[in-house]
Amino acid sequence: MQRRRLGAGWRTVQIVVGVLIVLWSLAPLYWGLVVSLSTPESIRIYPVSILPAAISGGNFARLLNGSATSGAFLVAAGNSVIQAVGSTVLTLLLALPAAYAFARLRFRFAGALLAMITLTLAVPIYLVLIPLFQYATAIGQVNTQQAVIVVLASASLPLAIWILRSHIVSLPADLESAARVDGAGTATVLIRIIAPLVAPGLVAAAVVVFLASWGAFLIPLVYGGSADVQPLTVLIPTFASKFSSDLGLQAAAGLLAVVPPVALVIALQRHLLSGLLKGASR
Amino acid sequence: MPTTRRFPLRLGAAAVALSLSVLALTGCGAGGSSGGGAAPAKGYTPGSLSKAYKGQQITVLLPPWGQLKPALLAKFTAATGVKVKMQSLAWDSIHDKVVTTEAAGQAPADIVELDWTWVSQFGKAGWYTDLSKYLTKQQISDSIGADAFVQGGKQIGLPYTLDFRGSTVDMTMLKKAGISTPPKNWTELVSDAEAVKSKGIVKYPIGLPLAVLEGTSTPWYALTRASGGQILSKTGAPEFANGPAATDALALIHTLYSKQLVDPGSIGLSDQQVGDAYAGGANAIVLSTGPGSLSQFLDKGKSKIAGDEIVFTHIPGEKDDQGPTVGLEEALSIPTQSAHKEAAAMFITWWMKTPQLVAAYKDPDLGSMPTTKAGLTALSASHDLKSADTILPMVGTIQAVVPGGTPTWYSKFSTAAASTIQSVALGHTTPQAGISSLTAQAKKIAAQ
Amino acid sequence: MQRRSDRLGLLLVAPAALVIVVLVLAPSVQSIIGSFQRYSLDDPSRAFIGVRNYLEVLTDTGFDQALLNTAGYFVVITLCAFVFGLVMALWLQSLRGWARAAALTVVILPWAVPGTVSGVLWSFILRPTGAGLLNSVLRSLGLIDSYQAWLNMPVAGIVAIGLTVAWSAVPLGVIVLLAGLEGIPQDIYEQSLVDGATRMKQFFTITLPLLRPAIAIVLLNAAVLAIGLFDQVYVLVGLDPLKVTMTAQIYLYAFRDFGFGLGFAASVIATLVTAAISVVYLRGVYREEEY
Questions:
Q1: Where in the sequence of chain B do the CATH 3.40.190.10 domains occur?
Q2: C234 in contact with chain A, both atoms CB, cutoff 8 A
Q3: Mean of the pLDDT values across residues B155-164?
């Protein structure tokens, strides 16, 4: 990108704004880290020090070796992974064919169906919570991983369809036509041609769904509240005891819960951004 | 863009057709609780432990402070052959989980947490089994505070942790200010706090939460009850409007706040945060807290005041003579939809035996006070009960906050009360005006 | 380029549509029906009572306060998402190479933090005592003389909670706005430079108008977040009547008072408000500019 060189004045603005932006983005995470590394007394001193007074990994150790929660933390971490990955895969499997049809095919009810799917973005979870729970109990699927996964997927599906659809729309149609001339069926076209070409879109949609599912609270609470199904977001609020809330333990658990999504965002940053940027630009 | 011009009509038609078919499938208006058997199965003897239900598994849904350890649970399984699965959720989350599952006609677990504030709502809905059919009369009369869990003549819960309100006083700090006994009335409370403040021992001698939360309402209830006043009558009428105690209690809170005997930041503090600050040595007195907090304050790893002389005692009343102590208990209950009521009742029977109650108190993660005289006696005999001299006499004076059971609209009332208390503390409202506005709100809430 | 194919199209869309119908639409319809019924635990009759639930909700002082609070969050979150988002996007655009890649990573990190965790992290900063970073810093600098419980003040509380929500909402806005900025053809700037335009003038005459679609998306996202706000408020201040949102009020009706009919009516109102705002934004702001 060729632009004018920045003058000294603008350069200063750029640096000052940059420092503020970095502070804003990282301060809560940094402070959470300090709290998690502090001993209970050291964070009760007022005013607190910006640097950790005495570094202690005790809170992390108590979580990871299971002594703080009799192993519940590790089980919950596993559940978070199962539910987030499960709902991401399910969402993409449902969304890709639909997105392809909406982008490439003209069929009856296409407009109505797309509008219906989009409209559900505005439905608050409280509207569906109780009836949905009745369905789940009617088929005996409460407190199961699959119940949580399916409900999470239904919540993310509209957005995933939108992201994928805008990617497919932007693909040149020639490749597909060429494949069809060679006699390829729709399934082959979808798997062999469309999927690889919209890889950035798939990555972007996958990350968006994963983050939403990983951070979900109410859905796993209601459809999978029992100990062997609950994810980290449901477990962490239980660390507040009746007469005190163990800040260090809450902070440590919160930060550990942030590691997988943050790692994912950092690892996939380039694909994620190109995918979302394309999706957003149309 | 594909053509979307005609969508509203078609969408409408499609939605109606689909919803009709789904409603036909699920049955609109289904989900009422038909209620399982109200009486125990033949062959079950109330209050007994036997192997009659060997091989069954019961689930127990309690907050973190009710989680018995696997080693202890193994003893129950050894005695009865019934396996126990403990489930832990945050206290608020349990409430939501119970409402959702029960509204859908399901049992949240075989044994579920029942807080005193939920009794009337959940009880009226018919969600819980009458335990008097599953336990003996003796077991229920032995249980301290069981009367708070009676709804419509049914005993729907049995307390598992004895919780009531008293003051925690750091006598080491008071003695530094030349005071040798805990304050017995409000005059002493204010003068003791002023002495501690003027000596510079701590800046804010009294810990008192003032955020708009349940933990802000209970100190006011406790101060009012300790001065001979009442909060709500048996019929749920605003009894606090009659007599001076409730108004005076609000005035006291305002005095403590305006003299900066309470941290001005308290308007943002929950009872938990006040407990944290106290463990950090920030105050000399927590005006209203539970006996269970002692284990936290005396834990060397968590508390800076663990070495101090700490007493848990009556909340000071306006005058010297003590009124009743407010009980805020949590109970075990059995949902009517549970398929293992007999095994669940056996679990309650087992828990209420002295060895288990003692173990739950000694577990530093729980610190639950026993709910029977026998349990308390065993603890004090072995010198394990902290602050036993003052706690044991208080136990005899415990009463429910609302004598006839909490009304269904309690949570609304509690929020209104907390907001009034905060506004009086800040001086935005006078105590008299606060009482009259709260009276009007209480009547309106009850009428809805 | 679109091919006409009814059967194939419906076949491909069917699984996704089925999931939406069964898991979202059908329960919604059931709840909407419930919003016209006397639907509470005290009264299992489920008699139809017309719009009485709606009237009761709309005249309830609790709901009116919640509406007012939600409007407050809406303003704070919208302003932050738009202003912070635009400043960050412009800043990112001014960077090159590795600096830009690193800065992008930092800026989008808050997006990866689950809502309940971000509530916990911000509570550590905003607490009046014990670990309250902001109070400690301001007090050390001598800017305040006693600890402030911002979260519990009427207006400051709304602003503070709005900021914590904006923290997780801004990154998505930055991505959308950055995409919009990158999409503006360079030659338009060069042409206006020839015409003697200043940077400021360029920003208002070229950048902002051409960003309209991206801005609409950012505003819409902020509106949906403000109306659906619940978890963070609950973690930070509980159910303080001066802080609760429309969504929290729905929760109170249904889960604390067992007035499911009222809760459903309030949900329908919230859905309609969201839909109305979306239409305004998409009609009014989302307009492709010709260039």
A1: 57-163+328-396, 166-327+409-447
A2: no
A3: 94
